[in-house]
Amino acid sequence: VQLQASGGGTVQAGGSLRLSCASSVTIFSFNGMGWYRQGPGKQRESVATITTGGSINILDSVKDRFTISRDNGKSTVHLQMNSLKPEDTAVYYCNAWRSGVAYWGGGTQVTVSS
Hints:
Radius of gyration: 13 Å
Helix content: under 10%
Order of helices and strands: EEEEEEEEEEE
Oligomer: single chain
């Protein structure tokens, strides 16, 4: 299994970015997929997850600004991030899990300048 994350970059506060996570296998082979992030000097935290059944969980601090979605045909999960804040600056990691096993993609840097 390979997960390829893309879409990071540098934006000003208030801007938007769309992250994509492409899976080498159908996303329906997983129990779910999601995005985690790790900011400078911080622990990694779950940002948004979506299960195969479509259940979504989003971090409270981003719930009104971030949206997770999936493109089933392209085996890709997206994270749309709007109204970005400097505190959203982090390396964002794509994650998938099935049967208790977690898979991680390489991170993509998101930097939000004030």
